[in-house]
């Protein structure tokens, strides 16, 4: 196997009394679509913030694209944080222009195509958009970038069920032509699991379970079923 895109070794992070990440050891395989799953508070967003250098670990080692997280690695990462909001005065068109001017690797042709597919009004400012429309715009800003690593923290939250399938198809199209790694978290496992190559389950800040999506599906029937099983065991 080639060098992993992300490698965490015995990584820990505490907020006051709360151990958000607890001796976490994991790898994200290059070129894979990897899902980071787990219950609310399992540590997914904290881990993404560490990968993007926004939060520093208390202990352990973290390597991203072969080096410690920082501005050099961030130029090669397209990151959609959870609860992301965009500038209210920007229209769809203005946002795509921003992407073209300021975001490394931004493919404006693909972005326009995705905006049309997702029925985003070109002239509408963000302040007139629904939550789901704004979420789509943010998603486009991330996935239309030719960078080695895309990180999406709950990209489908706020997007209605009927639109999700179309958006996931768009996502597959966008990343399939490039050798990119996509790391994402989601609670919409049933709908998204067709995207996954590998799955990492976090529980209370540590790696509870991991494997290839195919092997896990063969063993448990579906990733969603496995997630439910792990969650039930956690409640015991
Ligand atoms: N800035 C912070 N200050 C204090 N506690 C925090 C902070 N950020 C996260 N936490 C705590 O760390 C734990 C992990 O939170 P995190 O947001 O990483 O979980 P998550 O898996 O992304 O959850 P969700 O699925 O709800 O988004 C939680 O208990 C949370 O309350």
UniProtKB/TrEMBL annotation:
Pfam families: ABC_tran. Residues 6-229 form the ABC transporter domain. PANTHER family: ABC TRANSPORTER ATP-BINDING PROTEIN ALBC-RELATED. It comes from Sporolactobacillus spathodeae. The keyword Transport applies. One of its GO terms (molecular function) is ATP binding. This is ABC-2 type transport system ATP-binding protein. SUPFAM superfamilies: P-loop containing nucleoside triphosphate hydrolases (SSF52540). Keywords: ATP-binding, Nucleotide-binding, Transport.
């Amino acid at each position: 196997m080639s060098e992993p895109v992300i490698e965490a070794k015995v990584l820990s992070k505490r907020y006051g009394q709360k151990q958000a990440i607890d001796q976490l050891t994991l790898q994200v395989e290059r070129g894979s679509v990897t899902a980071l799953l787990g219950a609310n508070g399992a540590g997914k967003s904290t881990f993404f913030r560490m990968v993007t250098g926004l939060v520093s670990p208390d202990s352990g080692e973290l390597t991203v694209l072969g080096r410690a997280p920082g501005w050099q690695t961030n130029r090669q990462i397209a990151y959609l944080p959870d609860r992301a909001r965009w500038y209210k005065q920007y229209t769809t068109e203005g946002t795509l222009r921003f992407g073209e001017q300021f975001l490394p690797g931004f493919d404006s042709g693909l972005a326009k195509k995705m905006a049309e597919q997702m029925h985003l009004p070109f002239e509408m400012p963000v302040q007139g958009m629904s939550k789901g429309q704004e979420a789509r715009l943010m998603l486009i800003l991330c996935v239309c970038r030719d960078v080695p690593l895309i990180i999406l923290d709950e990209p489908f939250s706020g997007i209605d069920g009927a639109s999700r399938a179309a958006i996931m198809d768009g996502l597959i199209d966008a990343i399939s032509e490039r050798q990119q790694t996509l790391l994402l978290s989601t609670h919409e496992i049933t709908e998204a699991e067709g995207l996954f190559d590998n799955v990492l389950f976090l529980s209370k800040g540590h790696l509870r379970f991991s494997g290839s999506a195919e092997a896990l599906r063969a063993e448990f029937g579906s990733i969603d079923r496995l997630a439910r099983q792990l969650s039930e065991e956690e409640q015991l």
